[in-house]
Amino acid sequence: MLGNDSQIIEVEATTAEFSGTVQPKFTPTTGGLILASYTATVKTQSANAQKLAVKIDYKDVEKLTLPSRVVMLDLPSGAAEFSFDFTNYKIKKS
To answer: In what side-by-side order are the strands of the sheet with 50-61?
Structure first.
């Protein structure tokens, strides 16, 4: 599904085993849009729906905007939070 500004606002997928929805949020930059966050819901036939919120932080590395940290939060309870950092980028130019 697209918003009025032609940005993707929702993606749905369904198979025999599960159905899922992703709702991305983008941030405009001088180089274009970057994925800032998203929420996702997955429902399998054998389990309750799982909902997850993900936030992505970025940093500029050698004139490239690259992910620096990703934080994932179990919704709605917030009982589980996971994060990981991207460090020590090595940019190879050819």
So the answer is: 11-14, 18-29, 32-44, 50-61, 64-75, 81-85
Nearest CA to 35 out of 53, 13, 58 is that of 58
Res. 4: pLDDT tops 70 = no
Taking the CA atoms of residue 71, residue 75, residue 79 and residue 80 in that order, the dihedral angle to the nearest 10 degrees is -30
In the predicted model, is pLDDT for residue 2 greater than 70?
A: no
CA 16 to chain centre: 24
Q: Which residues pair with 20 in a beta bridge?
A: 13, 42
Is-contact 84 58, C-beta < 8 A? Answer: no
Whether the model clears a pTM of 0.90, i.e. scores above it, the answer is: no
